[in-house]
Amino acid sequence: MARRRDPAELTDAALAGDRGAMARLISLVEEGGEPARTVGRSMFPLAGKAYTVGITGPPGAGKSTLTDRLIGRIRKDGDAVGVLAVDPTSPFSGGALLGDRVRMQDHATDPNVFIRSMATRGHLGGLALATREAIRVLDACGIPWVLVETVGVGQVEIEIAGTSDTTVVVLTPGAGDSVQANKAGLLEVADLFVINKSDRPGTQDLERDLAFMLHLSDRGDGAWQPPIVRAVASTGEGTDQVWEAILEHRRHLESDGRLVARRQERLRREVAAIVARRLERRAVDACQGAAYERLLGDVTGHLLDPWAAAAEIVESLAG
Amino acid sequence: MARRRDPAELTDAALAGDRGAMARLISLVEEGGEPARTVGRSMFPLAGKAYTVGITGPPGAGKSTLTDRLIGRIRKDGDAVGVLAVDPTSPFSGGALLGDRVRMQDHATDPNVFIRSMATRGHLGGLALATREAIRVLDACGIPWVLVETVGVGQVEIEIAGTSDTTVVVLTPGAGDSVQANKAGLLEVADLFVINKSDRPGTQDLERDLAFMLHLSDRGDGAWQPPIVRAVASTGEGTDQVWEAILEHRRHLESDGRLVARRQERLRREVAAIVARRLERRAVDACQGAAYERLLGDVTGHLLDPWAAAAEIVESLAG
Hints:
Helix content of chain A: 40-55%
Strand order of the largest sheet of chain A: 3-2-4-1-5-6-7
Number of domains of chain A: 2
CATH superfamily of the largest domain in chain A: P-loop containing nucleotide triphosphate hydrolases
Order of helices and strands of chain A: HHHEHEEHEHEHHEHEHHHH
Number of strands of chain A: 7
CATH topology of the largest domain in chain A: Rossmann fold
Strand content of chain A: 5-15%
Number of helices of chain A: 13
Largest sheet of chain A: 7 strands, parallel
Distance between the termini of chain A: 50 Å
Oligomer: homodimer
Structural class of chain A: alpha/beta
């Protein structure tokens, strides 16, 4: 049987609850181009109801295990949940790749759990944009919770996880994580810290360091103060507390219109990112052909500096 | 006394050997704008002789200590050396910031050692470009060796370190580094692996893992096969072997015209990055004003999807 690839047909099927169609829509979104745009256009008006939770932190912090626990917690309430595992360092996608993600396959037979990995197809900015579109597919199909897990704490991971409604930063004791978290910019994006593996030595130190750093960056009266929650994801200890803290943050955002403002700001940035991306494509188009090769010859011959060459190329685009 | 800030005056002083003027030129380059362009224009025709060595690897691998050792090794031969310590996660620059960088201050009184940190000023792509310009300042001033050390293994760090003539990837045993290195894309950029802290358990395992992964990604006949060198940077053990491997790679590149080809490809990518950056600025300019706000209102009102809005903005730029 031929796989249906027509976006409109897939959209109808996905909206009617066909999970296979949903997966294929996300593949289309990931691949980009005109089919992705068609999917995006039909999903956008239907989206806006799902709540997104970003889960980030250094490798080995236990993000996948915690995600697995949160899936279980959400399912206990009867809600459906989508998980996007985003790996900017991998060119692969579409399945559970990392060893520890195999755990999530506990939920493989549950039709109300949709797990999907997303990976780079050559353009990191594209991955962030594709992730937003994939969230919209899940959202439009009526999934009320979307967990976005990233593999590490690079700029792209933080950009992706940090634009969720609630961002959970997972750290572990004894790994010097508080200093690294600070350096990586995790402090600014965190709405909630989870100290995972908190049965290990160093938990109190990490907690104190985090509390101190949060104190230094005090966001002022009425602002959300990120709580620090202990957990041992491998046993499930602390899962309820993590979930309660997420719900608490959601209530905080919803109570005073901040959720709407946050989402509007996110859309703003998304539009700017798409504009930048499109202009970048124009740049790539401009960086080929005989005239460009001549300019480049002058650069590699050290007759013309790269900025002067770039200025000429940009000018030629305007003309 | 007023600090001289005139680029032309600073350039003359730097070329005559004034290290303070060199430092200020790098500050200008880092700040961007027209003075940076002036510096770039005057340095570019004079540059192209320095050999650059990128040093990257996960936090805690001992990159700074190894860099320190390499400085000592290079000085033993009587050559001058420049070090750029690049930290995409820090907004600070211009001094030795990280605790372990203090070691490098052993060389602070040596006029033939120039150490400088570079940090983000709001734009990561800008940092990569500014690093290239800073290298050119050192190069034009007659420094034959430039070591570029990055703090971590994010995309930007790899982009920066990975565009050196020789890229050294520093790993440590027992930290699961081989898997992480693979995931982070370090395997592709490495010309040479250093297993630092090789007096610790797990060294053989790491060596075997790396050899196996390199075998999997065999680059074919005649291609450079990245050697794996053991070191204990804290005691200086293995420094000579690391340096010998760097020289060996240099000889390999120089023997068959690959160095020229590599540098030309680097310039190519630099021009494309500058073009992209300039177009991005245009995008930011385009993303303000009444017309833009109206479009954005439609997006946040879910009447218009982000891609359609972006397309309208890009069109308005062309018109």
